[in-house]
């Protein structure tokens, strides 16, 4: 919102933006800067929300009709993640900034969460990291720390003699943005944003087989729908779970059991059926139950019907339709 209002006249007040003509002029000057459609939509949405809260919903609707928001042309979410080779290139070009960039890759924190960390949020004995300043209530979470990142952070705190209440990284968002632009240019990855480090963490966790519910908790997503975008990277473990379920039910043997041969038993007073010959005998010798031929059963014949070519009964009589009586209903007269 500040970017959009920065192109307004110096003496313009909030009431100046409410006029549809002034708002259209403001948007036209803003678009001349060549910013992306996503940035424009975000800024305009913020201004419209401010106008609706300050001057009412009618003023917001009037400004909304005066300007048509551009579409970004994207379908769905953008998921750009780094491969192992690309992570090595980022690490090489980061230099002293790798302590910040590496922590973002190893934890999947947002930029705001990363820069809001305090030394007291780290527990080196348990190897955990507590995220206090989350995007929402569910974004407050405890993350495990391991590998070389845990040792790097321990050395970082000791080298700078940081107190528990001190910020872990004395870096502003502007400094981080400028440093990241230089790092990705040196690495030759011009399309990678700093937020894509969070996607990298999520994709590699999903590829390792981490359940989506656990990944949701680690990312601090409010709903599982936001985490399902990474389900396409998960390995096909359904067959493994199915085999484990069969073993728990006692059906996980590799060898098939012997199939019992069913021998029909004659009823009392009936003689046993003669031994079959031909294909039926071969089937009986191979362990099968044999082939039993069923004779077609003719449908019963009822009076007034005749069987058609297919053997089904077809009625000769025409269906009768009830007719209404032509007599008038008696009228009731006053006596």
- The string of secondary-structure elements, in order, is HHHHHHHHEEEHHHHHHEE
> Count of DSSP helices?
14
* Average pLDDT reading: 77
Helical content class: 40-55%
User: What is the number of beta strands?
Assistant: 5
In order across it, which strands form the biggest sheet? 1-2-3
Low-confidence stretches: none
Shape: extended
Strand content: under 5%
Largest sheet: 3 strands, antiparallel
Tell me the span between the first and last alpha carbons: 89 Å
The value of Rg in angstroms is 39 Å
Describe what this molecule looks like in 3D.
There is one protein chain. The protein is mainly alpha-helical and 335 residues long. It has 14 helices and 5 strands. A hairpin with a 5-residue loop joins β4 and β5 (313-315). The model has no long low-confidence stretch (mean pLDDT 77).
How would you sum up this structure in a few lines?
The chain has 335 residues and is mainly alpha-helical. The chain has 14 helices and five strands. A three-stranded antiparallel β-sheet has the order 1-2-3, with no helix packed on it. A two-stranded antiparallel sheet has the order 4-5.
């Amino acid at each position: 919102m500040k970017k959009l209002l920065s192109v307004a006249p110096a003496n313009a007040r909030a009431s100046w933006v409410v006029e549809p003509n002034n708002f259209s002029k403001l948007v036209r000057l803003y678009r001349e800067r060549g910013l992306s459609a996503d940035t424009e939509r975000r800024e305009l949405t913020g201004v419209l929300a401010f106008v609706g809260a300050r001057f009412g919903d009618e003023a917001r609707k009037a400004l909304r009709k005066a300007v048509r928001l551009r579409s970004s042309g994207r379908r769905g979410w953008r998921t750009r993640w780094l491969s192992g080779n690309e992570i090595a290139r980022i690490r090489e070009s980061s230099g002293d900034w790798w302590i910040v960039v590496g922590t973002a890759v190893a934890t999947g924190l947002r930029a705001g969460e990363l820069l809001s960390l305090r030394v007291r949020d780290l527990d080196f004995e348990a190897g955990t990291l507590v995220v206090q300043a989350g995007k929402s209530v569910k974004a407050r979470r405890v993350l495990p720390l391991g590998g070389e990142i845990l040792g790097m952070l321990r050395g970082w705190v000791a080298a700078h003699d940081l107190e528990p209440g001190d910020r872990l990284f004395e870096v502003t968002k502007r400094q981080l943005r400028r440093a990241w632009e230089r790092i990705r240019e040196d690495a030759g990855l011009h399309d990678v944003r700093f937020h894509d480090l969070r996607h990298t963490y999520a994709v590699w966790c999903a590829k390792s087989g981490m359940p989506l519910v656990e990944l949701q908790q680690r990312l601090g997503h409010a709903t599982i729908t936001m985490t399902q975008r990474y389900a396409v990277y998960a390995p096909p473990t359904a067959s493994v779970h199915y085999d484990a379920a069969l073993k728990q039910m006692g059906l996980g043997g590799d060898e098939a059991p012997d199939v019992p041969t069913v021998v029909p038993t004659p009823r009392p007073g009936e003689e046993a059926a003669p031994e079959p010959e031909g294909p039926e005998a071969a089937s009986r010798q191979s362990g099968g139950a044999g082939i039993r031929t069923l004779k077609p059963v003719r449908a019963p014949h009822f009076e007034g019907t005749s069987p058609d070519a297919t053997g089904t009964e077809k009625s000769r009589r025409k269906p009768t339709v009830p007719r209404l009586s032509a007599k008038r209903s008696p009228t009731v007269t006053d006596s």
